[in-house]
Amino acid sequence: MKHHLTLIAALVAAAALAACGDRTQTLKSGVIADSAAFQGTGKPYAVPGWKQGDKASWEQQVKTRTQNTQNEYLKVN
Amino acid sequence: MARMKFVCDAERCIECNSCVTACKNEHEVPWGVNRRRVVTLNDGIPGERSISVACMHCSDAPCMAVCPVNCFYRTDEGVVLHDKDVCIGCGYCSYACPFGAPQFPAAGHFGVRGKMDKCTFCAGGPEANGSQAEFDKYGRNRLAEGKLPACAEMCSTKALLGGDGDVIADIYRNRVLKRGKGAEVWGWGTAYGSKQAGQPGGAKS
User: Fold this and answer.
1) Is residue A28 part of a domain?
2) How many domains does one find in chain A?
3) Could you give the ipTM of this predicted complex?
4) Is residue A10 included in any domain, yes or no?
5) CB-CB under 8 Å, A28 with B171
6) A46: exposed, middle or buried (C-beta count within 10 Å: 0-12, 13-18, 19+)?
7) A2 vs chain B: nearest CA distance in angstroms?
8) Looking at domain B4-192, which CATH architecture does it have?
9) Cβ-based neighbour number of residue B190 at 10 Å
C-alpha cells in the first residue's frame, strides 16, 4: 500500500512540474518599451571610447567608428 | 543623431556573401532564415550588378502599417524593430515589405510559420540590452556595445555601408566624386544636389 502511495505521489509531482518547462505565451499589448542603445549593456564587452549611458559620447563613438571602419579613403589616400 | 541607414554600392559589391555570413554568425541565425541576402541583377551577363539586401529600416515602414498586432516599433535612431512576444506570425509584413526582409522560421511540423525574424541593425529587441533573452530572440545588440552592424563592418570591399545616415551619405558621395561616375543615377540630384561628378552642371537627375 505504502509503495502505491509513493508511486502515486511521484506521478502527481511529475504532472504538477510538467508545465514548469513551458515558456509563457501571454500576448503582450500596448506600447513596446525598449532601452536606448546609448544606455549600453552594462557589461565590459563594449568598445572603449565612450561612456555607457552618455548619449553624446555614444553618438560620437558611432560616428567615429563609421569613419574609421567604413571610409577607406581615410586610410589609404 | 540622424537615422541609422544602410547603403549598398553596386559598383563595389562582388557577391562574396561575407555580409550574409557575418550576420548569420553574429546572431546565430537558424538554418533557413536569412536576414541579409545578396541579389545579383543580370547574372552572368557582362555588367552584372549585385547588391546586399536586408531590412532597410524604412522611415515610413509598410510592415509597421500592416501589422495587425502592432508588434513593430522604431527606436530613436530610426531602427525598425519588433517584439516577438507580440508577433503572431501572420506574414502580412512579408507581403508588405518591398525588400523581402521579414523571414519566418519553418522548423515546425506541417510548414508552420513561426515568429517573424528580420535584420535588427544589430540593435537587438525590447529585452534588456545585452541580455541572454535578447540574444536568443533577436541576436547580439552591437549598437549598445558602441559598434555598428556586423555586415557593414565585415564587408570586404566596403560596398555595404551602415551607420548614421549623414555619415554614410558623406562617405558614399565622396566615393562617387573620386571615381568620377555614378552621379548619373536617378535621384542623385534630389539626394545630393545637381552639380556632382558625372552629371551635367545644373541638370536635375
Assistant:
1) no
2) 1
3) 0.85
4) no
5) no
6) buried
7) 44
8) 2-Layer Sandwich (3.30)
9) 10
